[in-house]
Amino acid sequence: MDVDYITVEKEASAEFIERKSRFIGYVKPVSTEEEARDFIALVNSNHREATHNVPAYVLLNNNIQRCSDDGEPSGTAGVPVLEVILKSGVKDVCVVVTRYFGGVLLGTGGLVRAYSHASKLALEAGGIITMAKCAVLQVEAEYSYYERLSKLLAQSGANIEDCVFSDNVKIIFSVREQEVDAISNKLTEMSNGRFVPVKTGEKYAKVQK
């Protein structure tokens, strides 16, 4: 699997009131069903008094899709949440919409719209990012070059994963495979051949569109 995909950048939440019912949309990036179930359980635990906690998740691996109405009328909650995820194109994500009933019935259409809206707000709060198969590299240099190196890597679309400070500074970064040669050439040119990045592995990482 070497295709790019989009997901959410971070765990987040957003809420609104619809005819006295409080809807809270929670979102978290996940990569396994276990992670999704753990997140759902956490939201349930934090909102034991809620009328409903409606979950849905989509995983890239095996294209797994799950949802539940959690007691709402069939098709009015879980499916709308799942459909928002699918229409957005986001993968490896779990959304849970919590509802506190406010005493006014929303009807079938009202429920669908409310759960859909809460899901959209949650995804927006989580931030949409592109993930791609990247090479992980490291380059070691004197401290006096740290800011210049960091700036060059950022301008070249690389994502700095970590920095190790000892006698010198070691910068660990990820970049699309097809951009490795270009960045290597820039580093070599900047340092007159002294800074040569070494590939240490591969991973899916956030990239610029």
UniProtKB/TrEMBL annotation:
TM helices/strands, residue ranges: none
Pfam families: DUF1949, Impact_N
GO cellular component, as recorded: cytoplasm
Domain Impact N-terminal positions: 19-123
SUPFAM superfamilies the record matches: EF-G C-terminal domain-like, Ribosomal protein S5 domain 2-like
Biological processes annotated in GO: regulation of translational initiation
Domain UPF0029, first and last residues per copy: 139-194
Family: Belongs to the IMPACT family.
Name listed for the protein in its UniProt record: YigZ family protein
